Structure formats: structure tokens, C-alpha cells
Protein 1
Amino acid sequence: MQAEKARNNKKLNLLKSKIMEPIINSQLPEFKVQAFQNGSFKTVSNEDVKGKWAIFFFYPADFTFVCPTELVDIAEKYDQFQAMGVEVYSVSTDSHFVHKAWHDASESIRKIKYPMLADPTGVLSRAFGVMIEDEGMAYRGTFLVNPEGKIKIAEIQDNNIGRNADELLRKVEAAQFVATHDGEVCPAKWKKGSATLKPSIDLVGKI
């Protein structure tokens, strides 16, 4: 009887360990990491993010293949993100020294102006739930944090699937719109300037 109870408890604990806690509307974790930006090393912490919109753009590793195409895609939209009051932070488990070496070696990576965060201990990757423990690197995770420090967008995908900065830009515009227009929501494929919806009982069954 005791043995069976122990087995059931073990199964229950295993099940609990696999249940993912919702990350949407959770608070940005405390952190302090090194970064490389515009030819210099700097320290970035959660204090630097307070009061601002921020994107955390996780990728597996420097000196790889899909990653530079994504980072350059974001770099080409960086001015637009900045104009919207959004800071972009790319994150990998490489050190800040490796970020600099990649920047110096790659013409593509030299286009990047946003901070490249170093997460060699995996503290950020684990906090955002994207760490691949067996490989010591992160999945492709994209997270938008609002000025109150709450995560409003969270997407994680396998490392052989690249992302699209245009789609991210659209989603950030939607997140900023609903943050400043109480009672309105953005429907599918919404773009800035398009019509929104105002949920009410009158709309039930009519969309």
C-alpha cells in the first residue's frame, strides 16, 4: 500500500513539473547581465527596462545560420521600434566577448545597433522558459514587456524556424494600441489604422 502511494505521488510530482505556468502578464524577472552594443561592453539590468516597452529576442547561438538572418531582420526595423518607444534586446547564452567577436567578423552583424545581451549562465533563458538544458542554449523566444514590466506577448518556436520582424512590429503596434484604448481589441490581421472591435453583448454571434 505504501509502495503504491509512493508511486502515485511520484507520478503526481512528475505531472506537476511538466505543467507550464502562464507567462503572459507575469512580471519581468530581476536580472543583471553583460551586453555588447555599438562597439562597447555595458551592463543591462531589469532597472534599465522599467517604464519602457521592450522586446527580448532569444536565439540559440552566435556564429550560426538562421540566427543572423533574424537579427539583421530586426536590425532593419530597429529605427521603427525605437520610434515607437521600444528597446530591443537580443539574448543568447554566448558571452559578451563572443558577441563582439561575431560583430567584428560578420558584415551582417555589424548592422546591429541594439544591445546584445550575454546569458552564459542561462539565468535569463530559464526565467523566460526557453532554456534547452541538454544543449546549453535557448529556443527562439520572443517576448514583449510593457512599461509596467508585464509580459504581453510570448512566442517560442523550434530552432529551425525563423521569425519575421514585420509580424512582430504589427503585434507590438496592436499591444500598444490596446494599452491606450480601453475597451477596444484588435481582430485578426489588424494593422495600425484599421478598425478595432468593442466587445459588448450586442456583438455576440454577429462577428
Protein 2
Amino acid sequence: MYTKLCRTLARVCMWLGIFGLVAVICAVSWQVFGRYVMNNTPTWAESLALLLVLYVTMFGVAVGVRDAGHIGLESFLVLAPDWLRLKMEYLIHFLVLIFGATMAWNCASLAESVWDYRLPTLWISEGWKYVPAAISGVLIVMFSIEHIIALAQGREVEPAWS
């Protein structure tokens, strides 16, 4: 049940990433069109593209953690004896979990602290710049827990698109 929830969340993040990339392309294209064809640069396009890149990147990072695409110490794991390898895998997932929790907490705190400020070109709260990292941190925690459960059950987490 938990694995199904995590897989669904990872797929949603991947779809949001795809839509976000399309939106980034549209915003940048509109900015280029406005600058070079209409001779009137839309000031909001660059800010929107930068904000969307944050969302795409953070959701992609979370999915990368779930699909074990993050930077790992594979060479040490391969060289380690079996009894140590399992302990090292638990440690790696636990450290990633701690990182995700710290990221979620601090980015949520940062978003709250700047929520009253506005991005001048988009007229939205500056806190929206930190929301994707907070969400990503929560997802990283969830996906790390999924990996720890899978290790305890002697299985691997299947990628979101399998």
C-alpha cells in the first residue's frame, strides 16, 4: 500500500516535471519573441521560467531518490561483504532521510519567513520560491522510508515507470 502511494506520488512528480518543462519552454519562447520580434520584453517571463525551473528540479530530485538515481557510494557497497553491505544501505537511506527532513523543515521555515514579500514581476509571494524544496524534502523522507522498508523485506523498490 505504501509503495503504491509512493509510486503514484513519483509519477505525479514526473508528470508535473514534464508540464513544468513545457511551461519553461513556453515562457522563454515568449520572452525571446517579445524581445526580438515585438521589441517589448515581457519582464515576467524570466521570473516565471526561473520559478518553474525550481519546481521541475526539486520534483526531479525527489523522484531520483525514489528510483535510486541519486549519488551513491556504489563502489564501496560492491566491495563490502554482504553483512556490511546491508548495514551501509540502511545508513545511506537513513542519511538521505535526515537530509530530506532537514531540507523540508528549513525550506518551509524560510518560505514562511518571506511569505509577506512579493516577487515584483510576478506579483506572487516570494515564499513560492521555497515551497518546491519543502515539498521535495517531504517526498525524499517518504521515499527513503520506502527504501528502508524494502530493505527490511529483502526486496528493491521498483522505478515509478515499471
Protein 3
Amino acid sequence: MDFLSIEFLTALLSIIIIDLVLAGDNAIVIGLAARNVDKANQKKVIIWGTIGAVIIRVIATVLVTYLLQIYGLRLIGGLALIYIAYKLLVEEKKHEISATNQMWAAIRTIIIADTMMGLDNVLAVAGAAHGDMLLVILGLAISVPIMVWGSTIILKLTERYPVVITIGAAVLAYTAAKMVVAEPLIAHWFANGVVKYGFEALIVVLVVAIGMRVKKIKSEKTKQQALHA
């Protein structure tokens, strides 16, 4: 495909739009994971987490043909993402932990979550690129700064409005539920629209309800320990 052809530029624009539209929940993951790291390391977490996630996504896009043949991948990814949504919701800030260990733990969470969530993105980008890897890499390279910028905004919002953490966890839980119902092995279970949307809503409600309950119990326990200290 000619670098300056209308076909190439149209395909590139399509990939950028796909990346940006599907990057919203990824920005949430990055922002929520980085919030528990001390401020001095938050920028590093966002940058390295994003770089790691993009590298994984480029590799996954190259291997997309093989990924499509792996039954159960969406189910595993969805279940992993449900756990990550719950974990991000109940985690408290613990700056007394080793900054280095905490920073790498946050980066690891970002990369794992983005890998699980990136399946739809990978499939969409691979389709729009028509096998042209230059298009894939250019599309990702252009969308990454916007993804980092989005996660920085979310990070600031979580500090000012704690409810954003709950909303973010709900978005991740919804993304996870959509991955589960799209799994070819069990897709027939959700052929009925009521069952499908009911399941997705149930997962969101359970993750948020259980997460908030556990968070409340942890908070009360911390207060009691502080009083007895």
C-alpha cells in the first residue's frame, strides 16, 4: 500500500479512531492502577505501563490469526478482568510499601489488564490494517499520547472525586462481562438478549457491590486499628 495513497491514509485514520474509541477503558485501568503509587512515581507508571501495553498489543496484532483460533481466550480474559476491576476498587493507598515494588506492581496490573481488554481492539485494528503492519504501528504510536493524557486526567479525578474509582471499576466489569458473553465456547448460552444483558448487568452490580462492601470493612478495620494504636 503506497504511503501517501488515499487508501493508506483512510486506513490509518480508521485505525486511529478505533484505537481512541476503544482506549477509554484502558485509560481507566492506567489511571486507577497509578493512583496507589506515590506521586513521584505516578508518571513513570503511566508511561511504562502504556509502553508495555502497546508492545503487547502490537505483538498480539501480528499474531491475531492464531489468537482467533484459541478457544476460551475471551472467557479467561473476561474472568481475569473481573478480578482486576474488583482489585482496583478495593485497593487502598499504601505509600509505606516499597515505592519500587509498588511501582512495578502497578505497571504489571496495567499490562495484564490491557492485554485482556485489548482483544477487541486487536481484532478491529488488524481488520482495518489489511495486513499492513506499518499502519498498525503508526496508528498505535499516534493514539498512545492521547491514551496517556486520558489516564492522567482520570488519575486527577480519582484524587478529587473518589466516586470515579467506583465508576471506573464498573466500566471494567462491564468490559469483562462483554468479553465473557462473546466467548465462542459459551456464546450460545447468551443467545437470548435478556439473558445476555442481564448477565452483563449482574456482573457489574456484583463487582461494585462486593468491592464497596469489602472496601468499607477494610476502612472500618483500619480506623479501629488506628484508635487502638
Protein 4
Amino acid sequence: MYKLYSMQRSGNSYKVRLALAVLNTPYEAIEIDILRGESRTPEFLAKNPSGQVPLLEVAEGRYLAESNAILWYVAIGTPLAPESRIERAEALQWMFFEQHALEPNLGAAYFWLSLVRGGRDLQTHALEDWMERGYAALQVMENHLKDHAYFAAEQFTVADIALYGYTHVADRCDFDLTTFPSIRAWLRRVEQAPGFVTMDWQPGTETEPPPRLVAGL
């Protein structure tokens, strides 16, 4: 069974928990509070020298870091990973976009404005740049979603999970999605996916397991 080291309120950690829930993949959840320095202990750094979560133990003593790498690992061989070469590349394209255009802006704003006490005052100098670049990334997504239900292969994939992680908390860090109707409709589609769980959900908190994405997974 996998061991997942993650932080409940982290968007990057949530992406992995959401994928595992959609796939109904069992795992042991280990909470790591980065705000308390729990990812900087010698014990944790021995597992992941970058001192970041999420971190997935895929076999005894073998660890996989970086949220989107973990997403790809758990998705291969399931409906969350497109089958054709070009569609897989398109999914990866959007996952790279998430990490270089969306997460550094929406993710940073969410961290400092929603999770860190006094973070707004500490990051006043950066907020304007986050907002400008974050809105630019949201517009790229909106333009794509005007003509597509999902981001790759015209189906729900890990690309959608990667982008959902921080987009769904945009309103918690000063971003207004009112003028992005296609994004708002896409958020609702993701939330209707079989097995969907919220960021607050934890394994073992329900009496019945989430529905599987497809029979047999």
C-alpha cells in the first residue's frame, strides 16, 4: 500500500489525494504540516531532500516527489491517462502549464493569503505580480474551455486534476472567477466526477468508499 505524506490544506497535496480517491486506490495518509517545519526534519529530508509535500512512498524506501509526477505515476494504466501518444503529450502540456503559470501565482497567493497568518502584509510587494500573472493564466484556461469540456483527450484526466487543485480555491486568495464562465462550468464538471472528494476529505471518514472511476479499477 502506498504511503502519502501530504498537508491537508495544500493544493499540491490535494491533487494527489483527489486522484487516488477517484481511482479508489488505497493508501496510508501521513499528515505533514509544513507551517510547523515538519517537512524540514532530518527524518523527512532523508526521504525527500527538497523538504516538500506531497511525497509518495511507492515501495519500501522508494519515494516519488513532485505532485504532477506523482499524478502521472498513479494515472498510468487508468482512464485518467489518455491512451494515444499525442493526447498524453497534451495532458502533460497542461500539467507543465499548471506548474509554471498557475501554481506559482494562484498557489503562492493561496499559501500566503489563506494559510500564513499575516501573510498578506508579508507579501504586499508580490501580490500585484501574482494577480497579474494569475489572471493571465486563468484567461488561457478560459479560452481553451470555451471549446473543450476538459483539458486533454476530451475527457477527465490528470490534467484536469492538476489544474483543479489551485483553481478551485482562487476565491480564497482575491481572484474573482465571475468573468470566467467556462472555468466555473469546468469546475462543476470536475466536482461531478465519480469518486470526487473535497480538499477537506480524509481517508476513512466515510462509511462507504467513493465510487470507482470505472468498474474493475
